[in-house]
Design goal:
The complex is a heterodimer of chains A (88) and B (581). With 88 residues, chain A is of the alpha+beta class. Chain A has one domain: Histidine-containing Protein, Chain: A (2-Layer Sandwich). Chain A has a four-stranded antiparallel beta sheet, with helices on one face. Chain B has 581 residues and is α/β, with parallel strands linked by helices. Chain B contains 23 helices and 16 strands. In chain B, the strands form two sheets. In chain B, strands 1-8-7-3-4-5-6-2 form an eight-stranded mixed beta sheet. Chain B has an eight-stranded parallel β-barrel with strand order 9-10-11-12-13-14-15-16, surrounded by six helices. In chain B, α1 runs antiparallel to α2, α1 packs across α5 and α6 packs parallel to α7. The radius of gyration of chain B is 26 Å and the shape is globular. Classes of the chains: A alpha+beta (88), B alpha/beta (581). Chains A and B meet through α1 and α2 of A and α2, α3, α4 and α5 of B.
Chain lengths: 88, 581
């Protein structure tokens, strides 16, 4: 299952946001990847996500493979749409 | 015979204590080939060390004795996630298997490669986290070697010695009052660690190159945070000398505290308010101790750059509130963010010359949301404390910027209606603003001259360039003329201050008094001497000296005249003037 998603928090996938994202992805059994800027990163790895250097406005592709892929993608979209809990 | 080494004194004070080596320089990871039948053992060692490292960082998080704030917790979380990272572990294991090398080397290799990759990412938040890679690597390597925290258990009267000390470690180790001094190989006066050392009043010397290789654990040493000298292997006689030096410094501090009680005025009654520049709010204590008559400038950059994101409005509110709820000050000055493309790389701006780039008010006007958030936090403090905050706008170069900033301030204030509790001022630090000072002052409540940047821009000389130290003089006729011109242009109607290092220069003091400045704002430690000197000068004599200096054609002549004047007039603070404070 693949879905597109736009990074809308001001600072993009920086250290803190990446931490939040990894804390979400690690709750799921599915293998999860993020495709962005021609790089495919394991979304359960903070080093993987940091290597994407996705800034605000970047569209990423979230790919989940496994039994709970749907829930995984929904949760990921939610945390991205919530701007990782950042105030603006 | 004793051995001594000179570095940069970043935090004043003097102490004698025993060396605690915090971490060895990063380079000493050894490469060792392993046999095939050792692979399993090596991977096992790695996993045990990583587990132990995770436990240590988690303990740090739980143990609230260190008074960790939410931003510190974020950093620790980030550290834990890297330690738990599957990619990292699998790459290191792969490396051990393929290259048949020890876990330490494999880990070092993988982390070095990763940090090289991240170094290419133009994002300041990422850049700041690069340092975390080293700390994580060091922690695992330490655990691989079986060494543990007990090897540097901190006893009373310890001197922390490290290659580099992270701000987190500084806070962690130094809050129990057992650490009396700090020595590091790297770093300088503006590093975050230096700022924290100053705020905790712990003498610190940085840029000591390989001091972490030179000193041995348990060795005793003297840290002279006034001169930036560390001394060890002292014999009996030298110890006596050092003890008399300690007495000297104790006397110095006593004198300073005595002087700190003075009022900032001349002996003929002219009032010149002597205030403190601070970089973090925990410096308020030393500002109060050294007799600051207010906070003349709170630089907000540390607040904005010490985390991996900008502070929220709430966080800023909590921080700014501390300026006013000490009961010592009825007002405080907050300089809005003076940061530029050199520090915020996520703007996607490649600036070849950040000093002349999008910084100060230029940045705030280009990022109105960040500017408004800072203003909102300030106004909330005004509303809650009902005390005055002076808002100081940096890097103004023309009227348009002042008008635009004023509009945004007015607009933001509509939610708070606190116009009785704030005033607006600008920092005159560009030559353009200096020329326009009279028009600019019509739009604001007060003016502050930022001498550090003004000197740099007027003389077109980088103040950190050692080759230009003769040119970069406070006593250049052009500098003195421009300061006089600004003062004349602003006139006597508007409050005008000097902020910047020149405000603490005792030789420049007669000029500022003679020109009729209302306020000098400086680092806290300089306040007592300036107050004492001021009390021995008369404004009429200072006016004459200004005229004499304005007639001089050369910087050396001006410096000579001022030196003689100060030497003749200043008696009480004379024996303190030899210290670089």
């Amino acid at each position: 299952m693949i879905e597109k998603c736009k990074i809308i928090n001001k600072l993009g996938l920086h250290a803190r946001a990446s931490s939040k994202l990894v804390q979400v992805t690690n709750k799921f059994e599915s293998e999860i990847f993020i495709n962005c800027n021609g790089i495919r990163a394991n979304a359960k790895s903070i080093l993987g996500i940091l290597s994407l250097a996705a800034s605000c406005g970047t569209t990423i592709e979230v790919e989940a493979i496994g039994s709970d892929c749907k829930e995984a993608i929904n949760s990921i979209k939610k945390v991205i749409e919530d701007k990782f809990g950042e105030k603006e | 015979m004793s051995i001594e080494k000179k570095g940069i004194a970043v935090s004043h004070g003097f102490c004698y204590g025993s060396i605690v080596l915090l971490n060895k320089a990063r380079t000493i990871v050894e490469k060792r080939k392993i046999k095939k039948n050792e692979i399993f053992n090596e991977i096992n060692r790695l996993q045990v060390a990583v587990e132990k490292s995770i436990d240590e960082v988690s303990d740090l998080k739980i143990n609230s004795d260190y008074g960790l704030k939410s931003e510190h917790i974020d950093i620790l979380d980030f550290n834990i996630l890297i330690l738990e990272d599957e990619i990292l572990a699998s790459e290191v294991i792969q490396k051990i298997k393929n290259d048949l090398i020890n876990a330490e080397w494999a880990l070092n290799d993988v982390l070095t490669n990763k940090s090289k990759n991240f170094a290419n990412i133009k994002d300041i938040y990422m850049q700041e986290r690069l340092a975390d890679f080293y700390y994580i690597g060091e922690r695992i390597v330490k655990n691989l070697r079986g060494a543990n925290d007990h090897s540097f258990e901190i006893k009373n009267n310890s001197i922390l010695v490290a290659h580099d000390l992270s701000p987190i470690d500084t806070l962690k180790y130094c809050q129990n009052e057992k650490v009396k001094g700090i020595l590091t190989d790297l770093g300088g006066a503006t590093s975050h660690t230096a700022i924290i050392a100053r705020s905790l009043s712990i003498p610190a010397i940085m840029s000591l190159h390989n001091i972490s290789h030179t000193l041995k654990p348990g060795q005793r040493a003297y840290v002279d945070g006034y001169k930036g000298i560390v001394t060890w292997k002292t014999n009996k006689e030298e110890k006596i000398q050092m003890e008399s030096l300690r007495e000297e410094y104790l006397l110095l501090e006593e004198n300073l505290l005595e002087f700190s009680k003075l009022t900032g005025q001349t002996n003929d009654g002219a009032l010149v308010s002597v205030k403190a520049n601070i970089e973090i709010t925990s410096e308020l204590n030393s500002a109060i101790r050294y007799g600051a008559e207010g906070i003349g400038m709170y630089r907000t950059e540390f607040l904005f750059t010490s985390k991996d994101r900008f502070p929220t409005e709430d966080e800023q509110f909590e921080d700014y509130k501390k300026l006013l709820n000490t009961n010592h000050f009825d007002e405080a000055t907050i300089r809005t963010l003076d940061i530029g493309g050199d520090k915020i790389k996520n703007l996607n701006i490649e600036e070849s010359n950040p000093a002349l780039g999008l910084r100060g008010i230029r940045y705030s006007l280009a990022n109105i949301d960040i500017f408004e958030r800072q203003l909102r936090a300030i106004f909330r403090v005004c509303a809650e404390e009902e005390k005055k905050i002076r808002i100081l706008l940096p890097m103004i170069s023309n009227i348009d910027e002042v008008i635009k900033a004023n509009e945004i301030i007015d607009q933001t204030n509509k939610d708070f209606m606190v116009s009785d509790f704030y005033t607006i001022g600008v920092v005159i630090e560009t030559p353009s603003a200096a020329i326009l000072a009279d028009e600019i002052s019509n739009h604001v409540d007060f003016i502050s001259i930022g001498t550090n940047d003004l000197l740099q821009y007027i003389l077109a000389a980088d103040r950190t360039n050692e080759n230009l130290s003769n040119l970069m003089s406070y006593y250049q006729p052009s500098v003195i003329k421009i300061i006089k011109q600004i003062k004349d242009n602003v006139g006597n109607q508007k409050y005008i201050s000097i902020c910047g290092e020149m405000a603490s220069d005792i030789l420049s003091l007669p000029l500022f008094i003679g020109l009729g400045f209302n306020e000098l704002s400086m680092n806290s430690h300089s306040i007592p001497i300036i107050k004492s000197a001021m009390n021995e000068l008369s404004s009429s004599e200072c006016k004459e000296i200004v005229n004499t200096c304005l007639d001089c054609k050369k910087a050396v002549e001006i410096e000579e005249i001022l030196r003689k004047f100060i030497n003749d007039k200043i008696l009480k603070a004379k024996n303190l003037m030899k210290y670089e404070i």
